[in-house]
Amino acid sequence: MASISGKVEGLARRAAAAALALLALCAAAAAEPPATPLRLLTANFPPYTIESGHDAPGPLVNLTLELIARSGHAGQVEFVPWPRAQAITAREANALIIPLVRSSEREAKYQWIGKLYCRSMGFVALRERLHRFDEQTLASARLVVLRATPYGANLKAASITEATSFEDMAKMLSLDMVDAIYANQETALLALQARGIERAALALSAPVESDLLWLAASPGMPRARVEELQQALRALQKDGTMERLLEQSGLPRAACAGN
């Protein structure tokens, strides 16, 4: 009986020790602060990223948040002015930014996760003021482009103004401060329609160029995390999730080389 009693006591001690160890492990885990969500910086660029309304936050935000979740991280989207979005991403190690056009000037400023979408660029004007977009006409025109984008350097015009948002560009066009907007035409149209300007009152050029919109990371983001995000993007492409999300959004697809 003494032998059996001793064995029972030994088992009880081991069970108690195991329980204490488990409690200690749980307490340690509870004491650890939760992982900081990745900051997804963007601006209001409908129909791609949408700050408010029925279609918010927009298809590229939804796609990127799905990508972040697939990589095992939490994500938090923030809509801020575009120059500020780029500044935050440049200095904070847990920051991501969309939709960014890759250029030689930006190449070393970010870590490039992958391509999300292809869009076309062109001119938009009020038809009663400007309806031709040949080189001679544009040479005497006043243009506006979005600040902190790579487009103004390649344009030839009488003047080129930089605006901080599509809303500002639409305002400048409606007040006759500029003759034409050079930007993604879909986003420009939505901004002008929000100011009550009908589509029939606008003249659009043929697409001038196409570019790829990228998801990019801060230069200070750990390389292992960047690779997790890249792997998650490849998985979304492979299983068809990326194509399905974009098709459901109704976004038109431009023909981009390398897309």
Automatic annotation (TrEMBL):
Keywords on this record?
Signal
Specify whether Signal is a keyword of the entry.
Answer: yes
Signal peptide start-end: 1-30
Q: Which Gene3D superfamilies match?
A: Periplasmic binding protein-like II
Question: What superkingdom heads the lineage?
Answer: Bacteria
Name of the protein in question:
Transporter substrate-binding domain-containing protein
Q: State the organism of origin.
A: Paucibacter sediminis
